[in-house]
Amino acid sequence: MTRYPCSWLWSCVVVMFRCLITYIYSEPSMLRTILIILLFVSALPFHARVTKVTKIAYPGGKCLIYRIGLKDKQHSPYTLQNPQQFLSPRSIARRQAQHLALDSTDLPVTPAYVQAIRDKGIEVIGMSKWNNTVLVRVHTQRALRKLDGLPFIRYRMKVMTAPDSIDERRRTNYMKSLNEWSETYNNAYGATEKQIESLHGDDLHNVGFKGGGKMIAVFDGGFMNADRIPALHNIKLGGLRDFVYPPSNDIFQEMDHGTMVLSAMAVNEPGFYIGTAPEATYVLVRCEDERTENLVEEDYWAEAAEYADSLGVDIVNSSLGYHDFDDKSMSHLYIQQDGEQTLISHTASMMAGKGIVVVNSAGNDGMGTWKKINFPADAKDILTVGAVNMNGVNAPFSSIGPTADGRVKPDVMAFGSPVAVLSGRGSIISDMGTSFSSPLIAGLVACLWQALPDKTAKEIIDLVRSSGNRSLNPDNIYGYGIPDFWLAYQKGRQK
User: What is the CA 356 to chain-centroid distance, rounded?
Assistant: First the structure.
């Protein structure tokens, strides 16, 4: 997962303090500056503040997880002529509205193949129909020999070695009202005014387009207290699902990263905080395991994508990204960034063709050794979002392009240094990262699509890109720039 850029913030703070301590002896007035910096430091995001963590043994003991690739989908009881067997009416209607035909990737994994694997005494913990793969869990590599001779298996790939222990999260306390001690806002949007106005999202809201009728799936690692924070009580919830193995007992006691992402879109508290799509319906999906960093998380993401598709989701916000894993032999290389070579990017590249707009954070590696966007931010036909500050200048941590095959990335930019979000304690805070730039765009995509219901996913993506303030001269730092959603709407009406 793309981590917070807090380490560089702390480095800056340490340097500033050293300079100030040296200087304060000659300039007592600097005391006021120190107090200001102390307030800044106290506002930095710490997950330890919002989540209680204890160590537990890995559930079920040490194990290995493998991705099993299958050769075909023969002997399937499912047919493309009867999609209602595996897709919801909303999903089918979404494709029909965009004139998108079903294909063999939409057929579920052949049940007989899955049963044959189970009959060998192998535990199946997941599967992907779009990639025709199965996830299996074994205690030793030798156990996989039981699968020798099964004619439908194409390959086997280790995607995780379980650690000895993992963190177990517990719920924390939350506020029963928005920041009562904070400043009084003199506008309807409250803390979010500038971040929404910068995208001209308020213009769409003012004419009634607030995401109504659109369904947004939020892929993340947890949604701490999202079921209890009063400001989130009125969101329209379309589904909950956990694809991580082992699944959490409660996704609302996991990390609050997803809570913050969700808040940027869904909250509707006039005078305090209004998100970019307060009238949309939300599906909360846990597919990121923050306790480890393993290739298997790409399989979880693929399962999440197929689940979202089956429900009829219109937009996916994925504030997630991968390239460096605990097992370094599994880590990705830049040359793989063509939108196809990795399972997660290949999956994301398929989604516009199935009628879904994917909005993905670019990543926070701009100041590190990697620097480039993460996976699946390299995917084709998605909106990859980088971060700018309040002056429209790219944040130094925001990951850059291009992709290995030469495509412009990121696609667009939005506030990310900082962004007003709700923490897992239910308070309005300022946080940093492309993770929070992405939902600003995703929510307004829902509003734009509500306003232009006859457009396809790919047409919506093109409109957003073409409305960027650098669309005439895109580059690999800003992409097509900061989009103007009102301009995108006007352009869409003319076509």
Answer: 14
Kindly report the pTM of this predicted structure: 0.91
pLDDT at 3 over 50: no
Q: Is 208 exposed, middle or buried (0-12, 13-18, 19+ CB in 10 A)?
A: exposed
For 109, residues 6+ apart whose C-beta sits below 8 A from its C-beta are 70, 73, 127, 128, 129, 132, 133, 134
Q: What is the DSSP letter of 426?
A: S
List the beta bridge partners of residue 135: 67, 126
Angstrom CA distances, 333 to 82, 264, 313, 404, stand at 41, 32, 31, 10
Query: What's the token pair of residue 279?
Result: 């009238």
Beta bridge partners of 167: 55
Structural contact between residues 69 and 112, judged by C-beta atoms closer than 8 angstroms: no
Residues 186-223 have pLDDT tens digits of: 899 999 999 999 999 999 999 999 999 999 999 999 99
Long-range contacts from 18-24, C-beta under 8 angstroms, 24+ separation: none
What pLDDT, on the 0 to 100 scale, is given for residue 199?
A: 98
Beta bridge partners of residue 386, listed in sequence order: 413
- Cα dihedral sign, 461-462-463-466: positive
Closest to 271 (Cα-Cα) out of 203, 183, 210: 183
N- to C-terminal Cα separation, the chain = 38
Residue 16: C-alpha distances to residues 30, 82, 389 (Å): 12, 65, 20
Q: Which two tokens stand for residue 59?
A: 């559930």
Burial degree of 44 (CB within 10 A; 0-12, 13-18, 19+): middle
- pLDDT tens-digit map of 145-176: 999 999 999 999 999 999 888 887 778 888 87
Strands 268-269 and 383-389: unpaired
Tens of pLDDT, residue by residue over 399-454, are 999 999 999 999 999 999 999 999 999 999 999 999 999 999 999 999 999 999 99
Rounded Cα gap, residues 223 and 200, in angstroms: 28
- Token couple for 92: 């089918």
Using alpha carbons, list the distances in angstroms from residue 218 to 264, 286, 315, 323, 360: 11, 8, 9, 21, 10
Q: Is the peptide bond before 246 cis (omega within 30 degrees of 0)?
A: yes
pLDDT at 22 over 50: no
Distance CA 404, CA 388 (A): 23
Q: Taking a C-beta distance cutoff of 8 angstroms, is the pair 303, 243 a contact?
A: yes
Q: Which token pair is 257?
A: 């990263």
SS3 420: strand
Residue 414 neighbours by CB distance under 10 Å: 29
β partners of residue 88: none
- CB atoms near residue 438 (< 10 Å): 33
- Please write the tens of the pLDDT for every residue from 331-389: 999 999 999 999 999 999 999 999 999 999 999 999 999 999 999 999 999 999 999 99
